């Protein structure tokens, strides 16, 4: 059996914590968080959802909307993203990836609104309508379930890749624009896994409140490098059609996350907690 391995696995990484690391302060109290279900429903009921469903299918399981989130939701996310700057874990994989991330485990502690939005029945229902699949939230130990990605230093980027599913079913990605004071673009190629349709390149700069939704195994994509004095933060949600993962794939997935994204402490602390180890 061959195991799909993304090209960012097993590359030596250097981790550079931001200069402010270790001075973590609790987030400042923000204005009352909006109700995620109500905010999502207020937007999605204005859309021509039949047409969007057709667009998603025609584009090989890909959809881009430049104005998806309600403004109060975008504002809440941007505030959380700035509050969590001190929590960013930076990674550098030569030639492929440079940037920062905050995993779901940190979000759970410090920005619970994001976790509520991730689980919003209105959001999941709309994504199911677009994809035609029954979607489930990712298992509790998957740090990609919801995560913030930071492009804050010159050259921060991620090279061409797929969001490969290590699960038994499909893995869908939602990418939400949170802060964009940058020249970074999402470059992508549609239909690369469909031999009957010619590859179709595209490129978007995702404004705050914008949404990208795609099947991770079908969309080849990258984020182009940030320039000087730029800042971009995006929020990604991952949903699956079957949360089961075979042990070998689980190992590969954990190693990739530890090396390429969140650091060994984040990933393996959760695993040890699960196995009853309190270290
Ligand atoms: Fe990706």
TrEMBL record:
Coiled coil: none annotated. InterPro entries: BesD/HalB-like, Oxoglu/Fe-dep_dioxygenase_dom. Keywords: Iron, Metal-binding, Oxidoreductase. Residues 12-38 are annotated as: Disordered. The keyword Calcium does not apply. One of its GO terms (molecular function) is metal ion binding. Pfam families: HalD. Belongs to the iron/ascorbate-dependent oxidoreductase family. This is Fe2OG dioxygenase domain-containing protein. It comes from Paraburkholderia megapolitana.
């Amino acid at each position: 059996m061959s195991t799909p391995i993304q090209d960012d696995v097993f590359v030596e990484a250097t981790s550079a914590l931001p200069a402010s690391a270790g001075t973590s302060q609790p987030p400042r109290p923000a204005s009352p968080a909006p109700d995620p279900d109500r905010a999502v429903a207020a937007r999605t009921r204005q859309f021509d959802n039949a047409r969007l469903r057709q667009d998603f299918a025609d584009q090989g399981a890909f959809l881009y909307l430049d104005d998806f989130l309600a403004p109060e939701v975008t504002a809440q996310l941007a505030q959380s993203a700035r509050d969590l700057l001190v929590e960013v874990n930076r990674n550098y994989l030569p030639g492929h990836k440079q940037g920062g991330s905050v995993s779901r485990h940190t979000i759970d502690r410090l920005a619970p609104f994001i976790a509520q939005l991730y689980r919003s029945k209105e959001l999941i229902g709309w994504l199911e309508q677009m994809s035609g699949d029954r979607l489930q939230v990712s298992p509790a130990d998957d740090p990609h379930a919801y995560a913030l990605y930071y492009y804050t230093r010159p050259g921060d980027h991620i090279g061409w890749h797929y969001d490969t599913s290590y699960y038994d079913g499909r893995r869908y990605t939602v990418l939400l624009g949170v802060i964009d004071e940058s020249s970074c673009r999402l470059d992508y190629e549609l239909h690369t896994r469909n031999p009957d349709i010619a590859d179709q390149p595209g490129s978007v700069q995702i404004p705050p409140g914008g949404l990208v939704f795609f099947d991770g195994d079908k969309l080849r994509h990258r984020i182009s490098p940030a320039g000087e004095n730029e800042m971009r933060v995006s929020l990604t949600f991952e949903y699956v059609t079957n949360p089961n993962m075979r042990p070998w794939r689980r190992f590969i997935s954990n190693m990739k996350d530890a090396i390429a994204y969140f650091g060994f402490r984040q990933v393996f602390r959760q695993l040890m907690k699960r196995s009853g180890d309190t270290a």
